[in-house]
Each structure stands twice: as structure tokens, then as C-alpha cells.
Amino acid sequence: MAKDYIKRLFDDELDFYLKSVGAIQIVGPKWCGKSRTAKRHAKTVIDLAKYDERENYISLARNNPSLLLSFGDKPILIDEWQVISFIWNSLKYSIDETGDFGQYILTGSVTDNMKDDGKAGEINEKHTGTGRIIKKTMRTMSLYESKDSNGSVSLIELKKGVFKPTICNRTIDDYAYYICRGGWPLAIDVDYQISLQQAKTFYNGLVSEDIFSLNDIPLRKDEQRARKLMRSYSRFISSQASNESIKRDLLDSGEEMDKDTFTKYLLVLQRLYVIEELQAWNTNLRSKSAIRTKNTRHFVDPSIATAALNITPQSIFSDMRTFGLLFESLAIRDLRIYCEHIGASLYHYRDQLDREVDAVITFDDGSWALVEIKLSDEKEIKEASRKLVALAADIDEKHNPKPAFLMIITSSKVATKDENGVYIVPLACLKP
Question: How many whole angstroms separate alpha carbon 420 and alpha carbon 375?
């Protein structure tokens, strides 16, 4: 029996774009719910994930793309569309022909890299779909979507200065479970052990098959090497570690990897939407501090790291530093989803003085917010509050408005505002 559908924040976004653009391309990792969500909004489905029908669709796409693109009532969903991504230009022309909104939904778990002739090549050799086709990323589920966050604190309301202290009934044990379970739809509202198995199953498929599935990035199939690479990357979660640092960790595990092979692995993981690194925020400071621009290392969901490191909700307490880094990655996952929903962007900040902020939210009106993420230590939370205020004071108001708010995300049980004017908010209280 199929599970009941759990409404996603992405449903509202998809509704909006189907009313405002010709087509929407939904990208994201496997198992995050792209197909199921898209099918709820489509009137016709072309399912290229079904192998027994795929060849017929590919033949039709090559020989008569216009017939395929008028296959039924619109919106037409083309699921796993990268299989026939050579029809991109035909798709664009079909949209242009009528100028109607909401004609096509495209879903895929791999970034396509195809020329218009269907051969492997560069994406930029296709005609641009700007203004006609919009690409949006769908991720795993946030705590608010899985109903593990009570949603009592809203990012949009904080931006307006609206806040009400509230209680959160989640414990640190709950967060240990959320990290290891992840936001996979199949892991929600099921038995405890079954929920924890979903991330492991995703991970095992990734290292045994998916990493080696991209024809244009040939990697010798070596599951043990892939597992070692994933473990090394996982050990640097929520850090700005260099590629050389990760390669040294690989070497310590007995795996020497040359620069070209290492780069290929990371590119494949990006193409599969498995890693999603957080870019640096570049702003104007009153001081002369230079901004460091290294990305922060993250998976699209922290449960991928726990699967790679064989961490359980119980064993995570044996290394509280790693617990804190994984909690930060969990919070970044949710902040990405919430920011996407409200049209904001997410970055991190670090300068040459090693002043660092885990997350910077930039809103579409130019306002911004600084966010630190601390698991539970009260002393660290107080120090983070002081540092947030100091950094905010150093940002040049001639070029940037004052911050909309300063916030520390924690695993505590009370959402409050401290003496510095900084919001202290449990992650399981947040919503967009």
C-alpha cells in the first residue's frame, strides 16, 4: 500500500511557476520526492524511469519530438528527462510556439551534459531556455515538512521584527535521530529501524552503482574506493577543508588518489546532487579584512554522512564535536529549503581574521541576517551571540542595510531573545 502523500513546501513553488513560466525543470537527489510531487501537478506523465517503455519514448523523441511534446494534456511531466535531453531545443520551440505558461515539468536526478544532437558534450551548446524554462532544486524534507518542527518561529516574521518566545519539546536525542534518519520521504512516519534504513539504502546504491553511472565522466568501478572517498568527505562536513586535506585523509585510510580522479569523483557527486557546498558571502566591511571564499562542505542531507561513517543515533554521542558539525549540516539543509521557499539565498562567511558565521541569509530586497549554529553548549551560545553583534557592527551600512536579525540555531527547548538582541531558536521551532 502506497504511503499517503506528505505536502511539501515545493508544492506551492511548483504551483507558482506553472502559472508564470513555460516549463519548470526540477532537479535534486534521488529519493527526495521529485517525481511524486511533480505527478500531483501534471495532467500527462511520460515516465522514462520505466525501462520497458523508455526505448519507445527515446525513439519517438529522436524521430518526432513534436509528437512526443504534444503527447497529452498539459502540463506534461517528463520524468527522468535527462534520458532524452537532446530534445531541449525542440522543447523550447514548443513553448515559444504558443507562449503558454505551465506546459512542461521536467524532473531528473542527474545534471544533463548533452549537446542538441544527443551526444555527450557541454550544456552551453544548447539554446538557452532563459525566460521560458526555470530550473529549481528540490531537496529532502525539512523538519517543518516532516512535522518534526512546530513552526513557531518564522524567518519571514523575524525579518519583520515579529517574534514570540515559545517552547520546543524536542530533545538532543531527537536531533541525533533526525540527523541519521534524514529527510527522505520514505523515512517519515514509519517504524524507527525502517526509517534509519532509508539513508543507508540510498548510500549503498550511490557507492555501488550511481557514482559509476555517468558515461561522460568515466570512473573505474571500485566500490571500496568510493566508500573511502565518501567517508573522508564526511569527516570534513561543515568545514572549509581543502581538497588536499580530504586527499590526505584518504591516504591515511590507505587510498591514494590522483588529482584528476579526485576531481572526477567530486564532479559526479555534484552532478548527482549529493554534495551541495555552501558558497561564501562577499560583503563590504568597515575594516580592511579580506573575505575568504572557500565553500563549506555539505551533503544535500546529513544522513548521507552518517551512513558513510556508520554513525547511529546512539553512537553519535561518543564524539560531540562531530555531532555538532552534523547538527550544523542539518540546520543548513533546513535553511536552504526555507530560503528557497521565500526567495532568499544562503551563504556562509569567513574572513582573514577567522571571524566566521555559519549562515548568512540574503533576502530579495537586499536585507540580510547572520545565523550561527550551536548544538547546546550555553557558553558557546553566549560567545556566538557576542561575535554576531560584533561582526554585524563591522558591516558597512553605506553599502548594506542593517541586519534584519541575528540568530543562533540550537537544540535547546526555548526560543527566546537574549540581552544582545540575538534570537536563540531551537531548530525544531523554525519554518520559512
Answer: 20
